[in-house]
Design a protein that fits this description.
The protein is an alpha+beta fold and 222 residues long. The protein has one domain (27-217): Chloramphenicol acetyltransferase-like domain (Chloramphenicol Acetyltransferase, 2-Layer Sandwich), CATH 3.30.559.10. Helices cover 27% and strands 26% of the residues. The chain has five helices and ten strands. The strands form two sheets. Strands 2, 5, 6, 7, 8, 9 and 10 form a seven-stranded mixed beta sheet that branches. The chain has a three-stranded antiparallel beta sheet with strand order 1-4-3, with no helix packed on it. Strand 5 and strand 6 form a beta hairpin. Helix 3 (57-69) crosses helix 5. The longest helix is centred in the middle third of the chain and has 16 residues, at 114-129.
Length: 222
């Protein structure tokens, strides 16, 4: 069974008009130019929505994070051959468990419509689990990477780092927990400091917290 995919394309950033050119030049040659942070997110309304809609949490939250990452231009920036490229949209590559409990990387889809995206990504997980999805789109850097570890919570974590793909944001979603009658999830975010700083993280969090408070936003086309 073949599922059609649309991959993002990119255009080169004009460095003369790039406001962060000084930060970029300073951080781009660091041995490890990434920064990491872990933030507890109130997902009470999102979790209720997911349960009411009978969705798989692992896929629904991947789509929620991808939605919010797409709302921040800096998250779409990549360093390609020493230059900055901006992709027109981002798609998720996320982890799932096979029947034998081995970890699978699923190259997902994202259009901005929750219903079609959920169905498509659920299909892709099933096909990958059955060994029927051989495609890998890691070479297209217009993606983000998301890992779901529902077995434990964390307050900080170190994520794998790849020099060849150092500008791709990486997310890790931990085990849900309750506090003061609310449901939280720890979310680790790894970004390249040459491209993304604290202000951009705040824009992402603002968007993600808005989605968590009003999940119906996910049904509006991006």
């Amino acid at each position: 069974m073949k599922i059609e995919t649309v991959d993002p394309t990119s255009h080169r950033i004009d460095m003369q008009n790039y406001s962060r050119s000084g930060f970029y030049e300073y951080f781009k040659d660091f041995d490890i130019p990434i920064s990491m942070r872990t933030i507890n997110i109130d997902i009470s309304n999102l979790y209720k929505f997911i349960k009411n809609e009978n969705l798989k949490f692992s896929i629904a939250i991947v789509l929620a994070i991808t939605h919010s990452a797409n709302n921040v231009s800096a998250f779409k920036h990549r360093i390609v051959d020493g230059r900055i490229e901006e992709f027109d949209f981002l798609f998720p590559i996320f982890t799932a468990l096979a029947v034998d409990q081995s970890v699978l990387f699923v190259d997902g889809m994202f259009s901005g419509d929750l219903d079609s995206d959920y169905t498509a990504n659920l299909q892709r997980v099933e096909l990958k689990s059955a060994g029927l999805l051989d495609s890998s789109r890691f070479s297209n850097q217009g993606h983000i990477i998301l890992s779901n570890v529902p077995w434990y919570s964390f307050t900080s974590i170190t994520l794998p780092y790849s020099k060849s793909h150092a500008s791709i944001p990486v997310f890790m979603i931990g085990k849900r927990f309750k506090s003061h009658n609310k449901i939280y999830v720890p979310l680790a975010i790894q970004t390249n400091h040459a491209l993304v700083d604290g202000f951009h993280i705040s824009l992402f969090l603002e968007s993600f917290e808005r989605v968590c408070g009003n999940p119906s936003i996910l049904r509006k086309s991006y």
